[in-house]
Structures are given as structure tokens and as C-alpha cells.
Design brief:
alpha+beta; Immunoglobulin-like; elongated; 10 strands; 2 domains; five-stranded mixed beta sheet; single chain
């Protein structure tokens, strides 16, 4: 049980005491003091608990899926599809071959011709049993085209992308990467183009 909940409960108890206990058993000034203290504690605890509640789970859409040919021979984007109209948050999905040992990153390239690495809490895309996925986030205008690019990254390149995202978050500024800033340890392996079906400007 959190401290905020305990403060809220204690505040409610004090308010109850001030209301229930008769004037014969407790001085009216003490009752008033307990009531005011209880009310303040209740409001503080309830308000603090409310504003520190964890955020809602991010709502994402999934696009259509490409039919996969097995055995998988390369890293490939299978959702969304080439040319698909998408929303502001989309779960990008793909496949990778057996014994694939590099990290997979998705970078988005909007109309400003800069590159934006995408990440979940793990930073790199989540890989398991030959499939990968990562939430991709868009901030452009309705109809704007984006290149969605899959990269294989060695350890150094992967760390660069993670550090870059953290730096952007800390600065609350997301300027994107120029092509020449993408590390040599990152190799493009697949690319599709998608477009926004809604206005996503200012969503994030």
C-alpha cells in the first residue's frame, strides 16, 4: 500500500472521528482541528495518488500483414504493408532468419529527410522465435509519406541509437539524424513506404 493511500485513509478516519464522536466526549475545538487535519490529509493523499498513477498503456494499431515464405532468409518488414495508410502509432512487425545475432532497429524517414530510430522500453526491437516488433510513432500531417527502414545493427551501432534516443528525451527535442550520422555498424536490410491517414502533428 502506498504512502498516499495511507494518508488518505488516515485523513478519512480523522474526519469520521470529528463527525461521530459526541461533544460530551471531545472538546469541540479538538473536533474541529481533527476535522480540518483529516480533510487536508484526505485531499492531499487522494490528489497525490491520482497524479502519480501510472500512465495508460499506449494504444497502437496494427496494419495488414505480408504473407511470409518459409524458411525465412532475411530480415523483413511484414507489417504494415508497402503503401499502406496508417495512424499515429503503429506496431511494426517482421521476421528474421535462424541464428540471426544482430539487433534490429526501425528508423523512420519523413519528408524532412532525417532519420528517427524507434524504440520500446527495450530500445531495440523485441525479437523472439524468428519474429520482431516495435512501436513506431509518427508526428506528421495527414497524407505525409514515411520511409520505414529496417536496419541490422552491431553492438556499437545499437548503443549509438539507444544513446541518441536518451539524449533526445533528456533535451525534449527530436532533431533526427542525417544520413551521414548513421553509424557504419548499421546496415539497411528492408524498406517500405507508408503514409499517414490522419493528422499526427503535435500528438507526442
Amino acid at each position: 500500500m502506498s504512502t498516499e493511500i495511507l494518508i488518505t485513509i488516515l485523513g478519512a478516519v480523522l474526519i469520521l472521528l470529528a463527525i461521530v464522536v459526541s461533544n460530551n466526549l471531545m472538546n469541540i475545538k479538538i473536533k474541529a482541528t481533527l476535522g480540518v487535519m483529516g480533510l487536508l490529509m484526505f485531499l492531499y493523499g487522494a490528489h497525490t495518488e491520482f497524479i502519480t498513477m501510472p500512465p495508460q498503456i499506449e494504444q497502437v494499431e496494427t496494419g495488414n500483414k505480408l504473407k511470409v515464405e518459409f524458411p525465412v532468409k532475411k530480415v523483413q518488414i511484414i507489417s504494415p504493408l508497402e503503401g499502406e495508410a496508417i495512424s499515429c502509432r503503429v506496431l511494426a512487425m517482421g521476421v528474421y532468419p535462424d541464428k540471426h545475432d544482430k539487433d534490429i532497429w526501425i528508423l523512420l524517414k519523413p519528408s524532412d529527410n532525417r532519420y528517427y530510430p524507434q524504440s520500446d522500453h527495450t530500445n531495440t526491437t523485441f525479437k523472439r522465435n524468428g519474429e520482431w516488433q516495435v512501436i513506431t510513432r509518427y508526428g506528421g500531417d495527414k497524407g505525409e509519406a514515411y520511409d520505414m527502414i529496417a536496419y541490422e545493427a552491431d553492438a556499437a551501432a545499437s548503443q549509438f541509437f539507444s544513446d541518441t534516443i536518451q539524449k533526445w528525451k533528456d533535451a525534449e527535442s527530436y532533431p533526427g539524424l542525417k544520413l551521414e550520422e548513421i553509424p557504419k555498424g548499421a546496415t539497411e536490410v528492408d524498406r517500405i513506404e507508408v503514409k499517414l491517414k490522419v493528422n499526427c502533428r503535435g500528438v507526442f
